[in-house]
Amino acid sequence: MKIAIKFFTYWHCGSGSSGGSSVDALVARDAKGLPYIPGKTLKGHIREMAETLNDNEFVDTSFGVSKDGIEKEGACYFSNAVIEEDIDEKLISYLFKTISATQINEEGLAVDGSLREIEVVVPITLFASIENCKDEKQMKKAFSQVKRMGLNRTRGLGRCEITLVGECDD
After folding, report:
1. Got the DSSP string for 158-170?
2. Which of the four, 28, 50, 65, 139, has the lowest number of CB atoms within 10 Å?
3. Among residues 105, 111, 130, which one has the least CA distance to residue 37?
């Protein structure tokens, strides 16, 4: 099945890298420099919502399970979520912004050394596929519950909506 992830706010799905002295956390980028959401990240967010459905068989079958030290791989494969449109190389830098945050103490003053800067992506739509989906109805219920994704999703970043845009390929 093909899904669309539409962001309504700035978002950050990290690469795990820093930008040296300028930025503390960089966004995951592909070979062209475009932002993407790693399939593993997408799978984790959808799994978290799938667990709220109280259908353990669906979760274990689709996402995998680890019991008594034995791991069983899930049937579903989640691709990276990518931008499908061709974007002129000159415009790529406009997809990214840097935002700053600092810790505030009890007196309302900034704590020394607490300034952090993260790279974020402007609101856009990305597309991904979920392969080997055996229960499309449950998967749709799970991904439709994802409302925020990525870093600082409880602080206003990453508000999104995931919708079905195509059928299962299998």
Report:
1. -BEEEEEEE----
2. 65
3. 130
Q: Judge whether 110 and 104 are in contact, CB under 8 Å.
A: yes
Distance separating alpha carbons of residues 50 and 54, to the nearest angstrom: 8
This prediction's pTM? 0.84
- Domain assignment of residue 111, given as a range: 2-166
Q: How far is CA 110 from CA 48, 99, 103, 107, in A?
A: 35, 16, 6, 9
SS (H, E, C) 6-48: EECCCECCECCCCCCCCCCECECECCCCCECECHHHHHHHHHH
- Summarize pLDDT for 118-135 with one digit per residue, the tens: 889 999 999 999 999 888
Cβ atoms of 162 and 143 within 8 Å: the answer is: yes
Three-state secondary structure call for residue 131: strand
Q: Encode pLDDT of 76-132 as tens digits.
A: 999 999 998 888 888 888 999 988 877 788 888 888 877 788 889 999 999 999 999
How many independent structural domains does the chain possess? 1
Q: What is the CATH number for 160?
A: 3.30.70
Element (H, E) at 126: strand 125-131
